[in-house]
Fold each of these.
Amino acid sequence: IFGQAVMELMKTPPANRWKPLTPDTVRGVYEVYLGGILLHQLPGPIVRHTQSFSDNFNRADSSTLGSSWVEYGTSNMSILSNKLSITVSLGTASAYWSTVCDSDDECSQITLTCAADPDIYFGLGIRAKNTDRIDRYDAYLSLTSNTAGDNHFLDKIVGGSQSSVIGNADPAYSVNEVFYASAVGSSISVKANGSHIVGSPATDTSLSGSAQRTLTMGAFTGVTDTFNADDWSGGDVEAAGQPPKGSWMLMGVGV
């Protein structure tokens, strides 16, 4: 009966002809045509993690960061009340994850939990040079006592020389912001709460290769102030290209 009904409909289409159903799902867009033809377009690019690291900072209070971090700079990072706590005195506090990434397509993410506005800059470093961490992309947030200045930036340091890639970009900081940075090929992204900041993704080819696979984080200021954050994660990102459109015959429909 179903087959006969389809045949009758195909014999007498409406004046504007039959149009496919086009459900849009997390798996991509489907096109279902009368007669049983099913087309599927996968979303792309597909991004997936291949190697991951994480630190929720849930451990005893300590004057050092510990875990798998190696600290450097003029001030220490610490653990306080199961969070990352940084007190910077006229200088920098920095750390890098002790295991390098397998690829230079990498990402880093942390939740920023400052309730008040410290006079401090906090950043995530991606594609940092394995030997000295100087050359890198720095995604950072400028936190000041004047909330109008709480915006996002992306700099690059190449050969020890720092320059801007994205400058003074919205949105402004909000408490518990999930701050994210990634480098996939020449595409460098910075996100706040899952959305790209203004100007992201940016295109830059200055830093790549097996020597640029270290993840860092750090803070710096010209005064003495304290910053805190929680739930860091990072690692490799693998970007797969978008596959070509495919087609299949729909053999049956279940209800």
Amino acid sequence: SSQLYHRKPILIGETVMVDSAGVGGIFWTLNDGIRAAYNAGRGKTLADFGTYGQMDITGIKDMIISGMGISWFVTGPQSAIRKATRIGGSNYTSSVITATASGDSRLIIENFVMLHARAGGSSGAYLVNFSVANTFSEGVFRNNMVAGGDDDCIRHNGGWSTFRNNTIVNCDGAGINGSATGGSGFSVIENFIHNNGNYGAIIQGDDVILNDNFMRDNAGAQIRLEATSNGFIYDGNRLDATAISNAGASNVTTGHNNSAAW
């Protein structure tokens, strides 16, 4: 005998469900579902497996926005992904995700696959824009796959945010290009950053932590510290090729990092 997986339906008043097929949720697009949840004071939006258009959540606060992750994929081209909550396409000319907020706010984005085809029309647009104001108290970008694009995979301009356990690969620019503004730092922890056309990570600003990442086959050094960096800490990273390019950063603290070829 066989057992069918049954998922309890999402009811009004609970988590807001989005389904691109129009079957399992009230909303078909992420932007509509997220805005409706925000206006109703709901704390979570869940997107089912499927492919969604660009997500612009400028001004959204105090919410968890979650996909279903990757159900199955094999090593190889992006088309090998078989089942995921996917955002993006091959011909956008602006960011696949734009998440900006100001003031004391909390925003978590998790369990998505964000894709552009490399050289696929996104010239000049970083794949993910996760930029927040200095008082942003809990910005978390975790468990996502960010792949492809003609500029940086992730651009961050703000503070008090964490990028954790993401796969960040195959962009023409840097894996992550982060600037901590106004003396408020951010953290890059336990990510796999691979095969990007610029540095693995570009760091600017004060009090940034980069720990326990796997970084390899990125053009140039794996980590680029700009002269504006101050109070940078990196420890426990597994790095390939030239580990650090330091353009004059101050108060750099290094722990046990391995930069041998692998």
